[in-house]
Design brief:
The protein has about 270 residues and is mainly alpha-helical. It has a single domain, classed as Serine Threonine Protein Phosphatase 5, Tetratricopeptide repeat (Alpha Horseshoe), CATH 1.25.40.10. Helix content is about 65%, strand content about 0%. The chain has 14 helices and no strands. Helix 12 crosses helix 13.
């Protein structure tokens, strides 16, 4: 699957899909631009089938918080964010102290653009004496989407004290710098994230995005293509080109410059 460069950059600088929509960890979509589990990589038809199956289970036992969370996850995977938030809203009413429910509900609210409410709910999903780095990471991404970047970085910093060099947190921190056009810091942070052995492919795609914005074309293309099948690599690179072209209006288009250099060298 190609990384949605164009979608991310259309929202720039107000919002980037933070490594997964809200930035994520393998466990949670709100953490690398962010899904509730590794099954978040399911194809859309699989999500539809899973949502249908869990809908029946949920209707039989709507008071089970685990079923509600799983059903909402499937709905989110199927693009039904509003319905997922509604399911988790009901679950949070029935289980107001269930931190797993509150965490999922907060992320679902963020999916629908209700950022302040999402932040408030996520704040109740863990406690100061037992902070959850995944929730801290999710809170950071929500703050970034409210343009509260300095606050967001404090949450990422706290999360990194719990899990040093966690790539999902570093990636979101790098994108936070990107949102304020601090490209050198964004590059440095995303390089560190991409070097971690458990970094997901989208972390490298975020690094490619920053490199492209800096005009480091050859390296950006190399990273965007990665070790992918030719068709997928070309799609990634094409999206990267389009995203950069749309978001460097005050600078010479780096892709045009590269083409001119190639033409000169071939002449």
């Amino acid at each position: 699957m190609s990384f949605p460069f164009a979608r991310a950059l259309r929202l720039f600088p107000l919002l980037l899909v933070l490594v997964a929509a809200l930035g994520g960890c393998a466990k949670d979509r709100a953490e690398t631009t962010g899904s509730l589990s590794r099954s978040a990589t399911l194809a859309p038809p699989d999500w539809r089938q899973r949502a249908d199956t869990l809908s029946a289970e949920y209707n039989k036992n709507p008071n089970d918080p685990n079923i509600a969370i799983a059903y909402a996850q499937a709905l989110r995977g199927n693009g039904q964010q509003a319905q997922a938030a509604a399911v988790l809203q009901q679950a949070s009413i029935k289980h107001p102290r269930n931190q797993a429910v509150l965490g999922a509900y907060g992320r679902a609210l963020a999916d629908t653009g209700q950022y302040q409410q999402a932040f408030d709910v996520l704040s109740r999903a863990h406690t100061p004496d037992k902070p959850d780095w995944r929730i801290l990471n999710a809170q950071g991404t929500v703050l970034d989407q409210m343009n509260r970047h300095a606050e967001a970085r404090r949450y990422y910093s706290t999360a990194l004290k719990i899990v040093p060099n966690e790539p999902s947190v570093l990636s979101n921190l790098g994108l936070s710098y990107l949102l304020t056009r601090d490209l050198p810091r964004a590059e440095k942070t995303l390089r560190t994230a991409s070097e971690q052995p458990n970094a997901e492919p989208k972390v490298r795609q975020n690094l490619a995005l920053v490199l492209g914005l800096e005009g480091k074309v050859a390296e950006a293309e190399k990273i965007a293509g990665g070790n992918l099948p030719p068709e997928q690599a070309q799609a990634n690179i094409a999206e990267l080109h389009a995203a950069i072209a749309q978001n460097t209006p005050a600078q010479p288009n780096p892709w045009k410059k590269l083409r001119q250099q190639k033409t000169a060298s071939n002449g």
